[in-house]
Amino acid sequence: MGYSVVVYFYNPNIYPSEEYERRLAAQKTLCAHLGVELITGEYNPEVYYDYVKGFENEPEKGRRCDKCFELRLDSAAQKAKELGINEFTTSIVISPHKNYEKLSDIGSKVAQKYELKYLPVNFRKQDGFLKTNRIAKELNLYRQNYCGCVFARSNS
Length: 156
What we know:
This protein is mainly alpha-helical.
């Protein structure tokens, strides 16, 4: 199909900053291994806290998480538009802990806002999650044990 992959790492939700740095380092290693471009968005946790204000006490997988996904996918769509890229997707859906349909719905709504196309790629198919675990092990990549935000960390 002739796709050129550009990875956009935007995660103002990650807490603490040392965790963010570990995850970014792993992303850099993976992108270098795969030979794909990595663009890093600004790390400003206050943007995340402002966006989810009022949803702090929501349970995991609740409305706070939806807001977080919306924030991050919106930023990805903005970056795609800025770069002249017409389609985007997210690797968040690789996790068996995430709701593929919900993420695809959020991605599609964000795409409409920017007149882009969201690609609802189910990376879990054909043992996708197992394959990513194998690659992570081969490259000795850091693997997190919670979603990322301070709220998820306090529940793990």
